[in-house]
């Protein structure tokens, strides 16, 4: 199931493994994305034939008839619309936005390594693009300026654990500050 939480840039939608699937500025947008993703997830569970690869006991693909009225009832049970045309998950009012207190101890979720004190620290890894102006084409060569700018927009940063060589997301609730 998907959920969203506030982040310092706005709101981040996450799956059950806490992977970020969307970042938006407005809470109503986050709510709609969560509702839509959970609806699709729930529909695939309720009407397995929708996936097109549901198989019977002997492995043959099966087609499932989906009654239109059932489908409408199902969707109406999953979503509620506001007066302004926005929608959200039905009954969502009972489930407030999750607020997570930041941890003060950072531990690898895979192996339990504690990578902040000591001599084997975690590495903060982020994807970045190098941007270099193209100067032209000359004698069969693309001329690209050696100097570059760095764009670090977009990619989600993660922490690399030197003990197990795996990465994990920065725990929710923690903000990142870059220091000397
Ligand atoms: Zn580890």
What is the topology?
Layout: E1 3-7, E2 10-14, E3 20-24, H1 27-46, H2 68-78, E4 79-81, E5 87-89, E6 123-125, E7 129-131, E8 134-138, E9 141-144, E10 149-151, E11 158-161, E12 166-169
Antiparallel strand pairs: 1-2, 2-3, 4-5, 6-11, 7-10, 8-9, 11-12
Zinc ion (ZN) binds next to loops.
Describe the structure.
- The model has no long low-confidence stretch (mean pLDDT 83).
- The longest helix has 20 residues, at 27-46.
- The relative contact order is 0.13.
- It is built from two helices and twelve strands, in the order βββααβββββββββ.
- The chain has a three-stranded antiparallel beta sheet with strand order 1-2-3, covered by helices on one side.
- By secondary structure, the chain is an alpha+beta fold.
- Helices cover 17% and strands 26% of the residues.
- The protein folds into two domains: 3-94, no CATH class; 101-180, no CATH class.
- The structure holds zinc ion.
- Zinc ion binds at residues 108, 110-111, 113, 161, 163-164, 166.
The count of strands amounts to 12
Number of domains: 2
Number of helices: 2
Tell me the major beta sheet: 3 strands, antiparallel
Helix content: 10-25%
| Rg computed from alpha carbons, rounded to a whole number of angstroms | 23 Å
The residue-averaged pLDDT reads 83
Q: What strand order characterises the main sheet?
A: 1-2-3
Any low-confidence stretches, pLDDT <50, length ≥5? none
- Structural class call reads alpha+beta
Shape: extended
């Amino acid at each position: 199931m998907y959920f969203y939480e506030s982040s310092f840039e706005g709101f981040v939608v996450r799956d059950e493994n806490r992977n970020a699937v969307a970042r938006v500025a407005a809470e109503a947008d986050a709510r709609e994305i969560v509702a839509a993703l959970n609806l699709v997830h729930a529909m695939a569970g309720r009407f397995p034939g929708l996936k097109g690869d549901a198989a019977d006991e002997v492995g043959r693909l099966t087609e499932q008839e989906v009654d239109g009225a059932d489908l409408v009832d199902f969707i109406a049970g999953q979503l509620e619309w506001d007066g302004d045309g926005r929608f959200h998950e039905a009954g969502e009012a009972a489930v407030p936005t999750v607020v997570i207190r930041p941890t003060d101890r950072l531990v690898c979720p895979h192996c339990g390594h504690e990578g902040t004190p000591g001599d084997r620290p975690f590495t903060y890894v982020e994807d970045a693009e190098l941007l270099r102006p193209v100067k032209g084409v000359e004698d069969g060569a693309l001329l690209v300026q050696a100097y570059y700018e760095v764009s670090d927009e977009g990619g989600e940063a993660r922490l690399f654990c030197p003990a197990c060589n795996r990465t994990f997301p920065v725990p929710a609730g923690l903000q990142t500050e870059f220091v000397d």
